[in-house]
Give the backbone structure.
Amino acid sequence: MRKILCGTSALAVIFFASLDANAQSIQNTDPSSQALLERIEKLESELNALRQAISQSAQTADAAQATAQNAIKTVNVVQKQTAKAMQGRYSGAESDAKWHLAGYADVGFVGSDRPGADSFVTGKFNPGFHFQYKDLLVFESELEFSTTSDGETATELEYSQFDIILNDYITVVAGKYLSPIGQFQERLHPSWINKIQGAPAGFGHDGVQPTSDTGVQVRGAVPIGKSRLTYSLALGNGPRTTSEGGVALEGVGRDDNSNKSLGGRLGFFPIPNLEIGGSYLTAKVGGYEGEAVAHAETPIQVSSDDPLGLDQARYTLWGMDGAYSKGALSARFEYLKSHRGTLFSITGEEPLGDVLPRLGMEAWYGQVSYRLSNVGDSDFLHNLEPVIRYGQFRISGHDELEEENAQDRFNVGLNYWLAPTIVAKAGLEWRNFKVLGVDSEQLYQFQIAYGF
C-alpha cells in the first residue's frame, strides 16, 4: 500500500508542474481566457488538498505497519511463555511422556445339555495401562476383575512389565509378561480378539501352554530380504509343582528353586500374510512346598523323606504354530507337547511325600474364520463371520487331570461385528472326554465382547 501511495504522490507532483506551466502560457498569450485560468487555479487548489491527504495516508500506513509488527512480537512472547508453563506443569517436554488406556470387557451366557449347568456369566473387565517415555521405555500392565461362582470379586495381575527399546531390532522386557510360547496366550486370548468364547482345549489355565512368567526377555524382529524373522528369548522363574502333582505354568513373584526356565519362540514370515513359528522351553521343577511355604516372602526349606533322590525333575516343552490372514480369511494352527520327569513331592493327599510318575501333555487346535464382507450387498451380511475350531488335549501320568481335561473339542460359531472392536458371538461346543465313564458334553455359548 505504501508503494502505491508514494507512486501517487509522484504523479501528483508532475501533474501540478504541468498545470502551472499551462496556466502561465494561457495568461501571457490569451487575455480572454481568464475564465479558463480561474478554473485551472481552482483545480490546482483541489490537487494541493489531494497531495496533503496522500501524505497523511502514507503516515497512517507506516503507523499501521509498526503496530502489526509489535503485535507479532507480542504473540511470539506469549507462545514461548505458554510453552514454558506447560513444560513446568508436566515436569518435562509435553512429548516426552505419554500414557494410554486400553483393555477389554465381556459378558455372556453358557448353557449345557447337562442338567443344572446353565448360567449367565458376568465375564471379565481387563483394563490395560501403557506409559511411554520418549522412544526409550514403555511400561505396560493389565489387571483382570472377575466375579467368582460364589459372588466375590477376584483380582489378578495379568502382566506388568517394562519394555526398554534399545533399537529397531532389540527390545528388553523385564517383569511379569505373557508367555511367548506359542501364539494364543500372548496374542489371541482377549475376548474381543478370540473368535470363539473360551480357549482351545489345553491352551487355557491348567493346560499345556504357559500363560505367563516372571523374568526378562530379549525380543524383536529382523528383516531378511523381503521376509522377516521375529524372535523372543526368555529367562524366568519357570513352572512349579501343584498340590495335585501337576505343573503350574503361571508367572509367580518368587521362585521355589534356584533353577530358571529358558525358552522362547522364533517366527518367520516368508510372505506378509503367513507366519510359521516354533517354541521351546526347559526348566527344572522341585516338589510342592505347601500353601504356607509358597506364599512366604523368603524361601523356606521343606523336609521330606526322598529315598530316591528325585527332589527335582526336568521339564521340557516344545511346539510349532502357523497363521495365515488375508482379507476376510483367517486360518491358524498350534501344537504343543510337554514332558516332566519322575518327581518326589508332597501332595494334598500325601503330606509325607510320594513319587509322581512322568507327566506328559499334548494339545493342538486348528481354526478357520471368514468375514462375509464381500458377499452380497447387505450390510448385515457383511458384518457376519462364521468360524470353526477343532482341537485335542491328551494327558498321561496324572489320572485326575486326565479325567477332567483329556478331550476332543469341536466348536462352530457365528460372530456379528457391531463395530471394529465390538462383537456378539453365538456358538456350539462339543466336548468328547476320552476317559471311560466321563460323559460327553454339549455347550451353548453367547457372548458380547468390547475392546477399547
